[in-house]
Each structure stands twice: as structure tokens, then as C-alpha cells.
């Protein structure tokens, strides 16, 4: 009687161990011997925590076992087990030990006064493996227990040391650790270009329920798709990288390694890892389910994985990955340069692409002229494929090159700043009539502070040894407009772009002595305490103007 009461108060897993001791000493059949072997595994197992994600490290070819118990009182109790391989494929299985109706612990105190426990009831019956899986996908087993049972989980890796995560829960009604995937978890490729790929995917139900704590994260790489976020992080680490925790994807302030680049724009965080197999990009974009991946390489295959991440639990679920190959970069359009013809080129600073001009020489000596109109531009010139000049342009630039007849010159121009830039280009034989007039040593306009009055200012500029035409223009401006006017000035535009009322005068002059080739002009009829913008245009024999650097002068307020 005392022993019967003793069985009632033993926890189920200790009860099984007690039964094992009894059964080892008893005569055995082959099925009982198999049971003893499995129960021996139980002694070398660890308890699997309920309601918590457990990280398990596996050594190659050495199984690791965990167990959990569903005790009496939980009739028809549901449970689920989710296993996430974080690297190579693994094998895992579930064994269950169930107890017959007359097994100790099932009887009431009164029953033991009149009943005898049969020999078959002294040992729990064994149900063979109820689940077995081998691979590297995330798998979930859903089960239901109708009576007390012990479950043994066995994990093994045959390729190499690795780690996995296991999540057991016996409370399936209070929500999910992992975010939910939609019924169709595929990623759709809706647009492909030479350097961009546009993706879209269906919303996770978790986004609608827990929008503040859920976000999408995208992984881009050139190797293959990943079936879980921890598998992706493991692969990056194995390439020699130290990856920030998953929450780094959700804007947490972790320090990056030297090989990593973090880009934050428009509330999106991008982490770019430079690994041996190419770039691995991680981008988190909140709850947006459409994203265009920028700055990809042309004609390259990329793999795309989307993960839905719970920022509170750090748990994630993976959409079905996809891949796409970017288009080939179109051949740059080449414009032909003709002798003496001027081409005005406007460059988009945001695209940072080269604009190409081609010129075939009909003479040995070739003269290139560049007039920078706006912005900053770099020029690169090749002759028959070999570089002959490469520099940043400034103002007016002449380049004289000597080669052979029918040499092919390729002129490539690129903006070096984000704003648009423009330049005028001319190619001609060396003896060809020059496009621009002879220029002075400086294109600056000087003003004389002592000669300023309330109604007039005096300016001066340098001339040349050639008789040329000079036209002066003025424009009243406000103080807060000065910087914009000076920065946006088109140095290639001529007087035709100015209002007639802004013209002050035109005059001719020259001096054979460059030291004395200077002229002054007093502009009258101005208002006191006012800012004025002054421009001087120089016209040569070809009629193409050269604009001096604009000058801002303020008249005196009191005289």
C-alpha cells in the first residue's frame, strides 16, 4: 500500500527512471531489450525547455538528445516542435514513451488494495519513432497527447559541427513565437534592370496584428538562397565576417566590422558585407512589402531572401527565396564629333555615367576645346584605346594632341557631383580657326571700394592684344540670392539669355602690351544700399562669347 501511494507522487520522468532500474534486472524479451536501449538514451538526455527557443550545438557524428514530458491531467494536450538548422543539413527524430492504463501512477489508492499489477504493466510500452527528418529546412511537428507520455528528441549532424535552434511549446493558444507567413510565401520579381531588381511579396498576418514590433528584412547575395536568418548569418560568419546580432537589422546601434558598410536612408538600414563570394546585403524596410534593390552589377545573378522579424523576441520566419539575373549594361551611346562643330553636353550627376564622343582625325595635330558651363566634370580621352589625357575641367581648357592620320579619339565626360553639369566641346585640326577668342590672364572682375558711391560703382577687367568686343550687364539682387546666383550661373550662356534692361554698354579695346590691357567702367544710375550683380562678356572673331566671373557689389547706403 505504501509503495502504491509512493508511485502517485513521483514526477513522471523520475518514475520512468525507477521503472528502468526494475526492468533491467528482470528477464527480457527482444522488445524489452530495445526499450532498455532507448531508456539508456534517456539517462543521457537534457530537459527541453517549454515556451523558449533553445540553441543546441552539435558535434559531427555525435547525437544529442533532449526530452520533455506531458504529465497526467493534460488530456488531448496539443504541442508543437520547430527545428531550425543554422548551417548544414541535420537529421532529427522524435520517439514517444507511452504508459498502459494500469501503469503505476494511474491507479487510485483504493485500487491497490484489491488489484495486482500484471507483469506487462510493470514496463511502459514503447511507440517507435513518430517523426524523422533530414535536411536543412525549417520543420515544425504538431502533435497531440491523450495520456501521459515522455518524448525523446535526437539530433545529429553528419557533415560537420553546427548549431540549431529548437522551440517547444505546449501552449498553442497564447500566440506564436515566430511571425506568421502568408498562405503564399513566395517572393515575386516584378522588375529587372542592369543595376536594379524590384521585388514584392504578400503581407504577413503578423504585420496587421503587431505592426510596431514586426518588420521585413531582405538579404541579397550572389551565392544561393537561405532557408532561415540564422543560416544566412552563419554563412557570413564562415566567410570570415563578424556579423552583428539579428537586431542590427532593426536599427540597433551595433558596431560594424571594417569590411562592413552601413547605409541609413529613408528609414531603411542597409548593411553591406564584403565577403569572398561577393557582397551580402541586408536591408530592413519596416512593413513595406515592395522594394527595389539598387546599385547591383549588370549581368549578374543575385539571390533574394525575405525574412519577417519579431523585434521583441528576435524570432524570424523565411519567405520562399527567389533569384534574378540583372540585365546587361547597354552600350553607351557615342556621338560623333565633326571638325569645328561645337557640341553642348548636359550630364546627369545622379546617374554618374560617362557621355561618349568620338572623333576621327584627318590631320596629325588635333585641338580639343572644353568650356565648362556648370558643375564639375572629369574628361578622359583615349587614342586608339590608349589613354592620352585624363583630368578635371576648370573654366576654359585647350588640349593639343599629336598622332597619325585616321586615329580614333574617344572623349568620355562624367559629372563629379550630384547636381547636373554641362560643357561645350569642340574638336578641330590644329590650324583651324579658334572657337574662342584670345583670353586674358584672368577672367575676374575687380571693383574699387573707394570709388563706390550711393549711385555708382567702378569696375575693371583685363583685356588682350586683340581688338575684341566687351559687353557689360548688371542685375539687381537681394542679399539672400547672392550665393544661388553665383553657384547656378551658366558660364556658357551669352547675352541672349539676359533681359534687355540689364545691358549697360558694349565697347571695343585692346593693347599690344599685356600689362596695360586693362579697362575700367563706371556704372551710374544705381540705388543706394543695393546689391548688384555685374557680368562682362568677351566676343572674339568667331562670335562665341566668354563670360567673366560674376561680381557682386553693394552701393553705399549713405553719402
Automatic annotation (TrEMBL):
Top-level taxonomic group: Eukaryota
Task: Quote the subcellular location field of this record.
Answer: Secreted
Q: Which residues form the Fibronectin type-III domain?
A: 179-316, 437-545
| Record-level Gene Ontology MF annotations | heparin binding
Q: A Gene Ontology biological process annotation?
A: nervous system development
Q: Which GO terms describe its cellular component?
A: extracellular region
Give UniProt keywords alphabetically.
Glycoprotein, Neurogenesis, Repeat, Secreted, Signal
Q: Which SMART domains match?
A: FN3
Tell whether Isomerase is among the UniProt keywords: no
Q: What is its main location?
A: secreted
- Signal sequence range: 1-21
Q: Name one Pfam family in it.
A: NDNF
The yes or no answer to whether the keyword Nucleotidyltransferase is present is no
Q: Which Gene3D superfamilies match?
A: Immunoglobulins
Q: What does this protein do?
A: Secretory protein that plays a role in various cellular processes. Acts as a chemorepellent acting on gonadotropin-releasing hormone (GnRH) expressing neurons regulating their migration to the hypothalamus. Also promotes neuron migration, growth and survival as well as neurite outgrowth and is involved in the development of the olfactory system. May also act through the regulation of growth factors activity and downstream signaling. Also regulates extracellular matrix assembly and cell adhesiveness.
Q: What is this protein called?
A: Protein NDNF
Amino acid at each position: 500500500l505504501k509503495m502504491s501511494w509512493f508511485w502517485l507522487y513521483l514526477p513522471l520522468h523520475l518514475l520512468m527512471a525507477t521503472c528502468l532500474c526494475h526492468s533491467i534486472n528482470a528477464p527480457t524479451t527482444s522488445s524489452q531489450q530495445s526499450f532498455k536501449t532507448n531508456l539508456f538514451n534517456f539517462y543521457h538526455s537534457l530537459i527541453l525547455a517549454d515556451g523558449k527557443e533553445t540553441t543546441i550545438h552539435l558535434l559531427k557524428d555525435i547525437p544529442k538528445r533532449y526530452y520533455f514530458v506531458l504529465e497526467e491531467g493534460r488530456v488531448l494536450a496539443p504541442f508543437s516542435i520547430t527545428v531550425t538548422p543554422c548551417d548544414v543539413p541535420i537529421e532529427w527524430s522524435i520517439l514517444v514513451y507511452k504508459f498502459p492504463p494500469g501503469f503505476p501512477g494511474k491507479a487510485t489508492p483504493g485500487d491497490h488494495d484489491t488489484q495486482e499489477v500484471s507483469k506487462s504493466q510493470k514496463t511502459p510500452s514503447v511507440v517507435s519513432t513518430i517523426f524523422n527528418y533530414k535536411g536543412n529546412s525549417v520543420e515544425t511537428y504538431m502533435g497531440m497527447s491523450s495520456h501521459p507520455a515522455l518524448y525523446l528528441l535526437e539530433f545529429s549532424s553528419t557533415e560537420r559541427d553546427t548549431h540549431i535552434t529548437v522551440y517547444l511549446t505546449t501552449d498553442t493558444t497564447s500566440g506564436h513565437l515566430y511571425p506568421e507567413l502568408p498562405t503564399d510565401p513566395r517572393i515575386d520579381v516584378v522588375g529587372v534592370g542592369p543595376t536594379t531588381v524590384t521585388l514584392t511579396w504578400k503581407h504577413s498576418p503578423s504585420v496587421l496584428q503587431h505592426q510596431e514590433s514586426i518588420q521585413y528584412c531582405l538579404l541579397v547575395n550572389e551565392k544561393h538562397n537561405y532557408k532561415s536568418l540564422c543560416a544566412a548569418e552563419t554563412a557570413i560568419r564562415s566567410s570570415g565576417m563578424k556579423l552583428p546580432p539579428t537586431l542590427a537589422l532593426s536599427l540597433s546601434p551595433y558596431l560594424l566590422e571594417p569590411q562592413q558598410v552601413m547605409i541609413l536612408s529613408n528609414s531603411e538600414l542597409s548593411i553591406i558585407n564584403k565577403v569572398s563570394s561577393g557582397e551580402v546585403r541586408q536591408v530592413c524596410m519596416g512593413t513595406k512589402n515592395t522594394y527595389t534593390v539598387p546599385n547591383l552589377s549588370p549581368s549578374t545573378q543575385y539571390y533574394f531572401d525575405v525574412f519577417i522579424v519579431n523585434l521583441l523576441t528576435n524570432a524570424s520566419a523565411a519567405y520562399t527565396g527567389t533569384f534574378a539575373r540583372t540585365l546587361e549594361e547597354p552600350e553607351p551611346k557615342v556621338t560623333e564629333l565633326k571638325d569645328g562643330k561645337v557640341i553642348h553636353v548636359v550630364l546627369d550627376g545622379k546617374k554618374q555615367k560617362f557621355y561618349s564622343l568620338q572623333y576621327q582625325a584627318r590631320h596629325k595635330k588635333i585641338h580639343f576645346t572644353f568650356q565648362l558651363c556648370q558643375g564639375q566634370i572629369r574628361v578622359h580621352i583615349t587614342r586608339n584605346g590608349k589613354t592620352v589625357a585624363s583630368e578635371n575641367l576648370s573654366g576654359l581648357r585647350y588640349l593639343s594632341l599629336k598622332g597619325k592620320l585616321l586615329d580614333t579619339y574617344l572623349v568620355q565626360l562624367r559629372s563629379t557631383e550630384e547636381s547636373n553639369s554641362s560643357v561645350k566641346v569642340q574638336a578641330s585640326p590644329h590650324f583651324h580657326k579658334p572657337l574662342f577668342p584670345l583670353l586674358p590672364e584672368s577672367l575676374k572682375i575687380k571693383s574699387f571700394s573707394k570709388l563706390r558711391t550711393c549711385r555708382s560703382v567702378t569696375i575693371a577687367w583685363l583685356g588682350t592684344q586683340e581688338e575684341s568686343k566687351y559687353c557689360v550687364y548688371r542685375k539687381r539682387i537681394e542679399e539672400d540670392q547672392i550665393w544661388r546666383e553665383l553657384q547656378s550661373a551658366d558660364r556658357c550662356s551669352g547675352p541672349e539669355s539676359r533681359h534687355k534692361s540689364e545691358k549697360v554698354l558694349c565697347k571695343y579695346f585692346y593693347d599690344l602690351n599685356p600689362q596695360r590691357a586693362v579697362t575700367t567702367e563706371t556704372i551710374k544710375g544705381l540705388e543706394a544700399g543695393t546689391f548688384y550683380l555685374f557680368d562682362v562678356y568677351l566676343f572674339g572673331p568667331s562670335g562665341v562669347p566668354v563670360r567673366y566671373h560674376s561680381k557682386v557689389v553693394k552701393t553705399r547706403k549713405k553719402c
